[in-house]
Records
---
Amino acid sequence: MDWSALFVSLRLAVGTCLILLPVGLWLGRRLARMRRRRALLEALVALPLVMPPTVLGFYLMLAFAGDGPVGGFWASLTGTSLNFSFTGILLASLVVNLPFAVQPIQRAFEAVPETLREAAWCSGLSPRQTFWRIELPLVRSGVVSALALTFAHTLGEFGVILMVGGAIDGETRTLAIAIYDRVQSFDEAGAGRMSALLLGISFLTIGVVYGLSRRGGRRHV
Amino acid sequence: MFESGHADSPGQALDEQARHGEGLSVSLHQAGPIPLAADFACGPGELLGLVGPSGSGKTTLLRAIAGLTEVASGYIRCGGQSWFDAARGHSLSVQARRIGFVFQDYALFPHLSARDNVLLAVEGDDVATRRTMAEAWLSRVRLEGLEDRLPDQLSGGQRQRVAVARALARKPQVLLLDEPFSAVDQVTRRRLQRELALLRETLTIPMLLVTHDLEEASALADRLCVLHGGKTLQSGTPETLFRTPDTPQIARLLDRHNVFSGEVVEAHGERRLAWGPYRLEVAQGLAAFAPGQSLHWYLPPSDVVLHRRGRPSNGERENPVEGRIQEMVVLGGVAQITLAFDHGAQTLRFEITTHAARRNALARGEVVQVSLLAAAIHLMPDKG
């Protein structure tokens, strides 16, 4: 078992979830209430879903390079490189997982009738109170779905991470990449153990989603 | 703020009160997207019914009063306070307007119990006091014992009561009811209407009831305001509107059938209403029209008197006309009779008890005579 790879994967998954949670809430809510130019933004958010991971990874790698737009800015700010660093794969992971975080939350917000928000305002609740006390509890199952999908998908992401991060031990080598390395070096037993672990985690997350969304009454997967 | 006590008449004083005092006065105008030309007032403790067909702007008006919909021009004043004044670019937020809004689908918060739905609207800092208040409101709408139920676990009627309790728990300055009885069955509707009639006796704020059900509106409201295409056409007590609609259009919107066209003539040495071969006496209003002028007239069905066969009486000398029964619909104890006349396509409709219809051997195709009571004939100018 490659414990450092497991640790990188978990760190990446938790980091991605934590950052995408507020982003998903904000963007999902905006998209759900948007009338104009909604299709364009939805398509942009969904793009990582349909792009081949190697293609997306290639473009991210270009952008993250020292002379690329993002990488150059990052270098001028910190003096370090984005490519082949944990920060780099975290950024890449945020892009890749955007649709998984946004879409379930957006569906959940769409299912909250506009009159409920209006009723809350009429009851004297400010927009902020309305969000915390009415909207957020009602989109809870969507948020759980988003987090679970993002978490599971980050653990399994391979192509993009490999393109951007390579396989640096303890820095960018995730569990999925470690499995590939093991197979390459004919260590099928090690690959098998790690695959079984990933399978278990994936099954658990999806089980949690279905369990919770059943309790919440609605499913947004 | 305003000089008081200088009104010239009691009527003016009341008007003054509605405009500057406790009541609600509304004037909203815009060309689009939803056209509006609405002017009405509602006094403290008064229940005003906004009636009109679907798409007449009733709900839009309620939403504008609540601050949920923006309107291009006009004003909304309530309780001596300006809520909206387009000329000054002034508009209070929904939260600041203090309204109780009962939505058509009730819009209860599905994740909160009945108590918490009401509790959200109760103001105050002390949670225990607010909780007691919320429970008091729930028991006022007779929901004791159901405080912990989620909306899903309540019947339609119970949900409506929670919505009413929530709307009132805010101590609103105006109560807005948007089709509050449309989502429940007939039996529940009757009961809820009765409860609202009792509840409103204890309320001293203006109340607006939007409904497309004329029967409901006239049973519950002190005054009705007829809307069409966002325009307020006529306001008055249900009795006034049903007996004297201003125009044929209003009569039609109020589902009044007996609207006819006629002409003013000089006959028998006095001014009469010419309708086909008949020269009808009219108690009021003919003096305002010149001979030769054409107009519309309306007669409430209650003021059509059937002549009993072979038993003439004095009343029969009043505007007797003869028609053929085109249709007779028996609805329980009441028979609705439609008379056709030789001189025009317009039909006259009235109701008598079913046993009276049997006694007089009324049937389709029979020719009968009726009197049109002169006191009830209501004249309307040709335009409009």
Note: Chain A touches chain B through 16 residues (CB under 8 Å).
---
Amino acid sequence: MDARRNWQDLPDAEGRFGPYGGRFVAETLMPLVLDLERAYRAAQADPAFAATMADFWTHYVGRPSPLYFAERLTEHFGGAKIYFKRDELNHTGAHKINNCLGQVLLAQRMGKTRIIAETGAGQHGVATATVCARFGLPCVVFMGATDIERQKPNVFRMKLLGAEVRPVTSGAATLKDAMNEALRDWVTNVSETFYCIGTAAGPHPYPEMVRDFQSVIGREAREQVLEREGRLPDAVMACIGGGSNAIGLFHPFIADEGVKLIGVEAAGRGIDERFEHSAAISGGRPGVLHGNRTYLLQNADGQILEGHSISAGLDYPGVGPEHAYLADIGRAHYLSATDDEALAAFQLCARLEGILPALEPSHALARLGDVARDIGKGGLIIMNLCGRGDKDVFTVAEALGAKL
Amino acid sequence: MTARLDQKFAALRRNGRAALVAYIMASDPDDETCFNILRGLPAAGADVIELGFPFTDPMADGPSIQKAALRALKAGGSLQKTLDLARRFRETNADTPLILMGYANPIESMGYESFARAMHAAGADGAIVVDLPPEEDAPLRAAFAQHDLSIIRLATPTTDDNRLTKVLDGASGFLYYVSVAGVTGAQAAAATAVRAAVQRLKRATDLPVAVGFGVREPEAARAIATTADAVVVGSAFVDEINPEDAKGSTDRVLRKVRLLSEAVRSARALEGTPA
């Protein structure tokens, strides 16, 4: 339990969250990640950096996002009172822009002239392309060819924003392969390029930095719920792919021992030995990939497995290292929801609340009823509705057998 | 064991020539073809063998070695199979150093201590683990120290003098200079830039300096062999492998090794200035 006392000080100087995290990168990239860390520390200490962020959050992104009482879902489940943190109302339709704004402002401070990013669902790609357009920086987005096929609207959106979308055909041509390709680009273009990682994973300082930028979600939610309800919630919930929206919601509540932190992973077609899921914590084991040690989907030889989820944004075989640590020490709890459960939750939310959620938070929605009933009437839950579902209408239509 | 590497480089120094370090991927395109290539490498002119162990996500490798890894995995390749191939090679050859090269996760999965023990038993001499920089390789270092195995570290064009001290601390066998910022098999570095870099590294260490990444043709190998202690070639060899034609693959790889070896061996004679 000693480790729990200082969890707010994590990661340590080596970028570790307990045994997780670190900087597992090729030597060529080591000076770059060390340089990035120095630049990030300088930005953290500079009030002007925070002020610029705040200004853009208010006037460009549209923060604070509302805390919305989901009255009809609350009635439907018959348990704890449910609030949605409405990060799907952000400019570009998801929480991703919180982080992109921070990283691109940092890139500018560092004098970098070219931004690269990886994307799965395309939300991080769109957010990066958006911020790059705003600041006049060239942007290259690596995206798996499979994902390009299932996320066409976002691909076109990125192109409209002036980004170059580079299809990645290696492996299963999804998010992990896009990340490999982005790392290969970075190792080749070391001096002018800034790699804008979309989730709270990768080599230190990315997990910490992305968490810090996304923590605006939890800080706002905490303030808003105290104002609305005069007390802290019993639980906060979010979906987990890499886990950036979840860690952003969780982190400002970590020291509040009475607040349960609940993450929901993608169980795909079920968590079993077929590995047709993307639930790294529930169905994986620790290993090293993409610069950090964390839970991974892998075989007995340490080869990474592709996994599966109906949601491109959750279709990643790893998870951010801080989640791995929070799971081990028992501070956060990780549940899962299958493709079918997420689809059902997507439709339920649409009909009862008039909100089309993205398939990613639909996984959290799918466990919301269980958690609400478990906590019971008089209880209070905040769920992060981290993205809107417009991008998913084609996928949902296909899954439901509807012709558009 | 470290002695085999030290003895090899000492002998080469006496002969006044650079080494050819030949990289191939274990189990590519299958175990038996790979073993035939391995067995033929010393006679073809490979002074040191770098045996890659396959990984699904080779982030620092270009298309050639990515494809080699996928072929190997498809053929059932693994870290264990790699160790088996190393052991079989060592039964046929007592003094050609053999080092393993790959990524951390298969080793994490096996366990650092088990890996070191298995390497020692197989007669392997050291390892390069691409995504274990000095900050992260303490468990590997501890395990290797107990079994007399070398940790071969990488220096790159982005490695400044401060960083170099860190890279050299705990390094043994030789120092691997990644001559271009980029992935394996991409563009070769300019000879003058390599010369300057090798001279800088040699001021900082007594370890032999090997130069690799992007060396595909005899001319490039020859240029590097005039200044460096070793030239590493990989992508050019694995590109000769065709899974449809095992026998032909073996012949083509070994022919290419002979070609590169001749270039490396003749480099300083042509230059007329033993380094």
Note: Chain A has two domains: 17-56+96-210, 62-93+215-399.
